[in-house]
Design brief:
9 helices; three-stranded antiparallel sheet; 2 domains; 252 residues; globular; four-stranded antiparallel sheet; Alpha-Beta Plaits; alpha+beta; Arc Repressor Mutant, subunit A
Length: 252
């Protein structure tokens, strides 16, 4: 059964951004994930977040463990650095030449409750694996990444060469046409969205969509796959956003 099937191809998941969401979106896209207070104030002003609203949001985020104070500003907490790593991997995935092998994970643990099963399913999906049948997950072995050691307690890992044609198998595991349609809809939406708040909302949706990209070998993808174009658009946006504000701060 295909994973991550959207409600309808081309549908956009545009969620209004709160002050907290604006701050997190900015810091998650910044390396290192830290901004001076003056720079942060300038950034959020462009998205309609006032100073008092920002201060209240920052206080709540520090109390909740999302941020920590530094000498000059705010930085992502250690807890959110893993989220930034996943986002970075989505924007800049590390791949290798594919030789036809597939990774296969077989769940061997028994007696797990619904919450544990849901958590394991989410972790395997985040690793860009797809479920062939209950307890059997796989993907082409073209990613440069190690599997988490804790998986050894609940699953076994194999290298496989399925008899089924690879393109057919990939098409049955992931909704590739739907993903492509939504990516193109996002690119079109961005092109006609000039307002800063609207663009930030759109690019937050871009990141969520890239997290669902299976990052398959090119031989298994439909023609004109828009993954690289969507990643380039996000990278350009982050560079322009941070560069513009830092230049403005230096001039003051």
């Amino acid at each position: 059964m295909p994973m991550n099937v959207p409600a309808r191809p081309g549908a956009l998941d545009l969620r209004p951004l709160s002050a907290r969401s604006v701050v997190l979106s900015l810091l998650l896209g910044t390396h290192p994930p830290e901004l001076p207070v003056r720079e942060l104030v300038r950034l959020v002003e462009g998205f309609g977040v006032g100073g008092s609203t920002l201060r209240a949001a920052l206080s709540r985020m520090v109390a909740a463990g999302d941020l920590r104070r530094t000498d000059t500003g705010y930085r992502l907490s250690d807890r959110l650095l893993e989220r930034q790593r996943r986002q970075d991997d989505a924007v800049h995935p590390r791949t290798r030449a594919w030789d036809g092998d597939w990774e296969m994970i077989v769940i061997t643990a028994t007696g797990r409750g619904p919450a544990e099963r849901a958590d394991l399913r989410a972790r395997l999906t985040a690793l860009r694996l797809a479920e062939l049948r209950e307890g059997v997950w796989l993907r082409p072995a073209n990613l440069v990444r190690a599997l988490p050691g804790e998986l050894d307690r609940v699953a076994q890992h194999y290298t496989a060469r399925p008899d089924r044609p690879a393109r057919d198998l990939a098409g049955s595991l992931w909704p590739l046409d739907a993903w492509s349609a939504t990516a193109r809809a996002l690119l079109a939406h961005i092109a006609r969205t000039p307002r800063p708040a609207g663009r930030l909302t759109a690019f937050a949706a871009v990141v969520r969509h890239l997290l669902a990209d299976p990052v398959l070998p090119s031989a298994l993808l439909p023609a004109d796959w828009p993954g690289a174009e969507l990643r380039a658009a996000y990278t350009d946006y982050q560079r322009e956003l941070i560069g513009e504000v830092r230049a403005r701060v230096r001039r003051e």
